[in-house]
Amino acid sequence: MEQDVEKLQELVDQYDRIVFFGGAGVSTESGIPDFRSVDGLYNQKYDYPPETILSHTFFMRHTDEFYRFYRDKMLALDAKPNDAHKKLAEMEEAGKLTGVVTQNIDGLHQAAGSKHVMELHGSVHRNYCMKCHKFYDASYMLHSAGVPKCECGGVIKPDVVLYEEGLDNEVVADAIRTIAEAEVMIVGGTSLAVYPAAGLLDYFRGKALVLINKGATPQDRNADLLIQKPIGQIFSQMKVRGNRT
User: pLDDT: is 31 or 112 the higher one?
Assistant: First the structure.
């Protein structure tokens, strides 16, 4: 693993336009379960599969059941940023990282200090009344009962992209631009199985593609550096030497 870290360190030292693309595996070391691992949500038993519960149709038809699952499994508000989140924030502060493109909805990148975060699938920290669009934070959602209602009587919906819903066009455009302009792309903690998010890698035309994931991905053969280890474990060994004051 030391040799892998040395190669990654060389890339980070050499280039200033680095973009990070991450998935659930970035947050598992903060105690947030992913979807596809042995202990992930897809391998736990519910009345409905998680991918069914987390669909637009299910939300509209079985809103109460959706929120029972959502509060129980999606609102990990006590989770703290781990070494990967913190190191990425350091890299951005040092002028090495141009942005974080994330599939996660937990807000841990921002909690660690990252500024340019493109949340492809939204955030549990933003919730809006479907009737009057009033904002509610994640704490309100966690401590509400049944179907959370706005003071106007409307149902409050998390600003997360459910199955059957499209990604935000502005977020996608920002992600494409950031990826296309990057010299190095580090992909971490994702199986690259969820589309259209995984398709954003096609826009990378830079010098080096780095993949850090415990399991195999469809892009492994295209990687200039492949590290099959927990991403926090790798990032904790890196040093950030910035070129900007």
Answer: 112
Report the SS3 class of residue 215: coil
Residue 1 has a pLDDT of 52
Q: What is the pLDDT of residues 150-195, one digit of tens each?
A: 999 999 999 999 999 999 999 999 999 999 999 999 999 998 888 8
Sheet holding 208-212, edge to edge: 117-119, 97-102, 18-22, 184-188, 208-212, 225-227
Q: CB within 8 A of 130, min separation 6: which ones?
A: 154, 155, 156, 157
Going by the annotation, the residues of the binding site for nicotinamide are 35, 105-106
pLDDT in tens, 65-78: 999 999 988 898 99
DSSP string, 88-118: HHHHHHTT-EEEEEE---S-HHHHHT--SEE
Please identify every residue annotated as catalytic: 121
Domains of the chain from N-terminus onward: 1-32+80-121+166-240 (3.40.50.1220), 33-75+124-160 (3.30.1600.10)
Residues annotated within the binding site for Zn(2+) are 129, 132, 150, 152
Characterize 209-229 residue by residue with b for buried, 16 or more Cβ atoms within 10 angstroms of its Cβ, and e for exposed. bbbbbbeebebeeebebbbee
**For residue 127, which phi and psi values (nearest 5 degrees)?**
-140, 135
* Annotation: binding site: 24, 28, 35-36, 103, 105-106, 121, 129, 132, 150, 152, 190-191, 213, 215, 231
